[in-house]
Amino acid sequence: MSMLATPRAATLTDLVEAEGIRFVLATFVDMAGKPCAKLVPASAVGMLERDGVGFAGYAAGSIGQQPSDPDLITLPDAASFTPLHEIKPGLAMVQCDPHVEGEPWKYAPRVILKSVLARLAARGITAKVGAEAEYFLVRRDASGALAVADEKDTSAQPCYDARDLTRMYDHLTEVSTLLNALGWANYANDHEDGNGQFEQNFEYAEALTTADRLVTFRYLVQTLAERRGMTATFMPKPFTDRTGSGLHMHMSLWEGDTPLFPSSGDPRGLGLSTTAYRFVSGLLTHAAALSAVVTPTVNSFKRTTAATTASGATWAPRKATYGGNDRTHLVRVPDGDRVEVRLCDGSANPYLAMAALLTAGLAGIDAEADPGDPGTGGTDLPPTLLHAVEALEADPVVSGALDSAGPGVAAYYGGVKRAEFLAWHSQVSTWETDTYLTAF
User: Fold this and answer.
1) Rounded CA gap, 311 and 158, in Å?
2) 3-class secondary structure, 188
3) If you write DSSP's letter for every residue of 367-423 in order, what string do you get?
4) Which residues lie below 8 Å from residue 94, measured CB to CB, with a gap of 6+?
5) pLDDT tens for the 440 residues of the chain, in order
6) CA distance 263 to 127
7) SS3 (DSSP) at 206
8) Rounded CA separation 323/329 (Å)
9) Cα–Cα distance measured from residue 64 to residue 416, given in angstroms and rounded to the nearest whole number
10) Could you give the count of Cα atoms lying within 13 Å of 165 in the half-sphere of its Cβ?
């Protein structure tokens, strides 16, 4: 009786050799989503796989370290290997998991998401996520003010405008070609609702894969834009009078090959199962605390509290509501196989956002909660980052998501975000001098 050997998983060294890679960006992100990397030559990839590569964590950014702390040692995940020949011939990127003194670092966003996904796996559940990442292409004008990169992109309602889209053809098609070369299946590229705003979509995948791809996507979009003298920004609201940039998350849960969200017998007519409704209820119940994670900057709340923009709509939720194919809700149900969370914005750390959303949804499932009928009720979302941090501190479910790899992370994160708010709040703005200078 013959036995077939189980194929050996490709190592990072195998992948580097097969792709003709000369250098690898060994990458991780801090809690703010900043991509941090060291450039590792192919000759040292074996060492990278075996020993990792060291970083002074405090210097990297908000990742729970002080200058006196031991190095972060980042170990690569070969499954995230991404060749980037179109960026630089022979270049690749690999996402890494930070460790400290041999243990996964509890403050590392990728480690946090993996901890949440492990809890799902223990229940036999897999999470799949698709993400719609909006961004602006901008430049500085002669006075130094921020301006749209395409000076002809000025119409009052530019969304889907074929002419505005075509003028950015070279940038958009270069990004699209690269996404398809990576096997991500880019399926649409469009001009969004704000002047200078675009969206490029790729197929959904398991949650960790999509989070890794979002980190890489931001990097390649920004790099390719710089080549053309533009800045690609995922800032939620770079212009006061224009629509902000969302990071809409399409989420579903599965048991093996069986999706848990669809139902053919939904009396509410949205095609959702009881499990899906409970998941939605968890998202709505914890929406205020989730805001501290999925809309995590001072600027985020200029998007969610915006008055009507020049185009006539903000396309951002203001209350914790859900509904069918209706883009005004926090949770939209485009069809029964998934739910779309529209609260997240371009500044969200994809690992932390997915960890928090999945944990909140699961809490709704465990509580056997019901969100009520579509379009009903709904509490107001926090008006500022400070209000969101206070909600996070009072919510053990969302705090627990951040603490999933170890205690103290939620408190650290809340402190970082509180300090961010107060640093902004202490600045005297042009609005203040214009309003108050001679008012009294």
Assistant:
1) 8
2) strand
3) TT----STT---PBPPSSHHHHHHHHHT-HHHHHHHTTTSTTHHHHHHHHHHHHHHH
4) 12, 24, 25, 26, 27, 76, 77, 78, 80, 81, 82
5) 344 555 667 999 999 999 999 999 999 999 999 999 999 999 999 999 999 999 999 999 999 999 999 999 999 999 999 999 999 999 999 999 999 999 999 999 999 999 999 999 999 999 999 999 999 999 999 999 999 999 999 999 999 999 999 999 999 999 999 999 999 999 999 999 999 999 999 999 999 999 999 999 999 999 999 999 999 999 999 999 999 999 999 999 999 999 999 999 999 999 999 999 999 999 999 999 999 999 999 999 999 998 778 777 889 999 999 999 999 999 999 988 999 999 999 999 999 999 999 999 999 999 999 999 999 888 999 999 999 999 999 999 999 999 999 999 999 999 999 999 999 999 999 999 999 999 99
6) 18
7) strand
8) 6
9) 10
10) 15
Question: For 437, how many CA atoms within 13 A lie in the half-sphere containing its CB?
Answer: 7
Strand partners, 53: 74
**Cβ neighbours of residue 420 closer than 8 Å, sequence gap 6 or more:** 297, 298, 385
Give pTM, 2 decimals: 0.96
For residue 95, list its beta bridge partners.
27
The phi and psi torsions of 53 (rounded to 5 degrees) equal: -135, 140
Evaluate the CA torsion angle 299, 305, 307, 312 in order and state its sign: positive
Question: Who's near 273: CB < 8 A, 6+ residues apart?
Answer: 260, 261, 262, 263, 266, 336
Contacts of 264 (CB under 8 A, 6+ apart): 271
- Residues 37, 352, 184, 159, Cα dihedral to 10°: -110
- Residue ranges of the domains in the chain? 18-105, 116-308+317-424
Beta carbons of 275 and 369 less than 8 angstroms apart? no
Euclidean distance between CA atoms 357 and 388, whole angstroms: 15
Q: To which residue do tokens 């009507």 refer?
A: 308
Length of the chain: 440
CATH class of 116-308+317-424: alpha beta
Question: Tell me, what amino acid is at 37?
Answer: A
Which tokens hold the place of 365? Answer: 């499932």
Contact 323, 184 (CB under 8 A): no
Cβ 135 vs Cβ 346: under 8 Å: yes
Report the alpha-carbon angle 385-386-390, nearest 5: 115
- 18-105 placed in CATH 3.40.50.1360: no
